[in-house]
Specification:
This protein is α/β, with parallel strands linked by helices. The protein contains 14 helices and 17 strands. The chain has a five-stranded antiparallel β-sheet with strand order 2-1-6-7-8, covered by helices on one side. The protein has a five-stranded parallel β-sheet with strand order 9-15-16-3-17, with helices on one face. Strands 12-13-14 form a three-stranded antiparallel β-sheet.
Length: 519
Amino acid sequence: MRHIERVRSNLKGGCSVELGMRTVIYGPNGSGKSSIVQAIELATTGAVSDMEGREQVKQSTALARLFPANSPIRFAECDLSSGERFRWELPDGARKGTYKKPVHDKPCDVKWPLQVLAAVLGGDATTVQAWLEKQVFKGLTKRKALAKLPPSVRSVAENLMDRKGKTDFLSLAKDAKSEARALRAQATRTESTVESMVEGISPPLDEEERRVLSQKSALEGAYTTEEEHEVEREAIYQMAIALRKFEEAVESEPGNQMDGKLEMLGKAQAALEMIEQHRSRVGEPTEYCWVCGSKENTQDHEEQVRAAVSMLGDALAYKQRCAESQKKLDEMKQELHAKCAVFNATQIGESPREAALILAKDDAVRKTWRNAEAQKAESAQLRAKADALTSTAKSLLSVGKNLLNAAKSEFESNISSFLPEGDTFEIDLTSARVGLLRENGLHSALSGAEWNRVLLAIACGIANGSTLNVLVPSDRAWDRDTLEQMMTALSKADVQIVVMSTVKPEPVEGWTLVDLTRS
């Protein structure tokens, strides 16, 4: 584990001190203990804490006051056990009393966690609880975390973990609840918008109503008043009566007898035609009848044929009249059918233009209702997401509490291993308090020395070995026994510790003692 081996600086009275992984700098007040610590801090961070009553100072003009006037150079540097070096230097500016931008070389990251811990654990209950939960859950990978959840919520939980970049179940449960509330609020606003959109607007026409209106809008001149419609109805009724009467008259004619007479007329006309043809070829008959072939009544038979043709000619004329009547009957039927078709298509009410306007208005209504339905669907999706998040939050909270309680003892044991014998670290997750266990329970109202011991133990317990950590407790008024107990407890810590004390401790294995009493 790399650590700072030497610090050099001309800050205040100047220093050049060798340090160990764990160091106690002891000497009376004013001997330069704080100058060494400030030089380390300035070299590694470019700032100084506890200066001029301020928490941290970075301004060049303020930092320059830490150095003797007219110093040819203002610097602070720390050599690491790895051979690397931190160095901070403040050059003079072009004019007297001015300074250029500081030059700061930082070969690696460095943390001073005690200051951060003091700020966090001295905060409100919410801040403390969030920090404690993070420490307990920080070793839980996403894969392991998801495996501990019910399958029904894993997909939502995984999405939440990816977006938030953490696996802290309790913190994720809060995030899920917060997102669910936001989604429900958004759904409520959307539903309110939908109500406003359709307020006072009738639902759209159904498909049958639109079909009828479409037919109306396509017709021209097919709409009348109710009175005109009734007159047309009566006219069609009278036409139908007349048609029926005419049809009955035509049907009453002896159609079959007429067909027989027409056949006889055809034969008589054929016989008369033959007589005429024979006469024109051979002249008047002298011996035989042209009709029957007898030698008698030749003239009488021809007259009979002619009389038959004359008589049957009336039947032909009647038949022609019947044909004309049938044609007229067909024409009357066609006219009646046409009028009925127009009458059936005729509507009373909206004109084609009015029907088209109603359809256009319904198109706008349909668009509004479609938008409203889309908004309703969106609201339903929002509420479904909110319900899924709420269900996930319940699982995260339930599983998280079990995990937290299971890990709590392990975390407390780890921190307690860096405390002096007899001290036991404890966390109250309900009240978000940390402290030492006493006979009457958790004792969180600690003295300065106790609080420094707890902070040191926590910092050692949570330190990341890959990062340079420098622990410098603020308390200097250690009594010898407490200081030696603390040194013993921290002798195996994998972080660099620099303790300032006004008393000289007994040597403890693994600790370097820097004596400033002779300076």
